[in-house]
Amino acid sequence: MQTQAIGRPPSMVAPTPNDAEQAAAPIKLLAVTQDTSLALLDADTLAGARVVHASPDAGAAAGGPVEVFAASPALGADPVEVIDGFAYTDIVPAADSYISIPAGDYEFSVAPDTDSIGDAVFTSPALGLSAGTEYTVMAAGRVTSTPAFGLLASVDDNRPIATQVSLKVTHGAPAAGVVDVYVTAAGEFSAAEVVAGMAGAPVLADFAFGTTTDYLALSAGDYDIRVVAGGAAAINLEGLSFTGGQVLHAIARGPAEPAGSPADFGVILLSN
Length: 272
What we know:
Layout: E1 12-17, E2 27-32, E3 37-40, E4 47-53, H1 58-62, E5 66-71, E6 80-86, E7 91-92, E8 99-101, E9 104-112, E10 122-123, E11 127-129, E12 134-140, E13 150-156, E14 165-172, E15 179-185, H2 191-195, E16 204-207, E17 216-218, E18 221-229, E19 232-242, E20 247-253, E21 266-271
Parallel strand pairs: 4-12, 14-20
Antiparallel strand pairs: 1-2, 2-3, 4-7, 4-8, 5-6, 5-9, 9-10, 9-11, 12-13, 14-17, 15-16, 15-18, 18-19, 20-21
């Protein structure tokens, strides 16, 4: 007669596709026990980063576009220029992709476009980038006044969910102050009706500069997004079409300062 041990089932290890864009290895191992699961990454797996220029006065303070240097033990002894000619609202490498870099701790320096890190006007605290993880790093705030210039970094969860749209929002518009964000079905309310309070409570109330939300789950469909500041719709986006499986990151940005292009409020929209 055969006997069967009763107790905790054995662990299972299975290969799965490594679907992160920055992955150095084509597969990862998924270890599963009764209590948890753990992804085991190849030692050569990279981190992914995209960088957004959302500082409204950095160009004016620098006399034009800026450049970005990165310093990290993962890159060697000397800082490396990673972005050249970086202008307001630019995204590197693109709104839907990432730069692949070795995992590690990084310091980023921002300088006028002179090809010299010695001209840097800002150096960030160390920012840790983990293997197999994708990040959006945003240059935000003001160089010449408050809120002070700095880097806002958030982890991107680009796993698509077919039954929903995943949307996170960052407040990167210092001129707007504290705002309310409304997301309504397309055409249901006009911007004036939203401002008047006819659309009900905002999705995000008292949303402060520098804040990034968790991912909000929306049904697929057409939407209007309004950002209300000081009793007016500073941002009015109408008829946006979202489909299931999209992962989006909306960054509210202000006009270029002291005067320039763009001359109004708007949104920088990133995707998976």
